[in-house]
Amino acid sequence: MTPCNPPNPSFGLLLRQVRDGLVRQLDVSIAEEGLGLGFSHYIGLKVLVGMGAPCTANELAQAIDQAPSAVTRLLDKLESLGCVRREAHASDRRALQIVVTDEGHGLWKRLKRRGDAVIDFAMRDLAPEERELLMNLLTRIRDSLTTP
Q1: CB within 8 A of 27, min separation 6: which ones?
Q2: Band of residue 96 on the pLDDT scale cut at 50, 70, 90
């Protein structure tokens, strides 16, 4: 325990500390790619690849709970690296859709390996059964907070 951490943190504080620690570790790892990317790019690319189909910038903003202006900057960076491209929307002439390129899929594979390594490091003291239990419990808590 570090001096700044209370001995018995609240549930919310503990979750925040875990999240912040993971983000810090992932930012350090991603920086090793030398591309000027960080956690927000990781999440954005993860969601884009996970969608499996093109989406609009507004749809991405909703999916990652970010302001559209932040998503525009995120997409500008990914586009400058050749990871995504903006194309005319198939059914809405006013909108653009975001398409992940082959380069984007390749970068995502590298970033995912880094993310998996950070998670493995963070949970290194947990047995496989404990990891599974933790994920199940957190999933149940998340689902109980999601309105139907």
Answers
A1: 38, 39
A2: confident
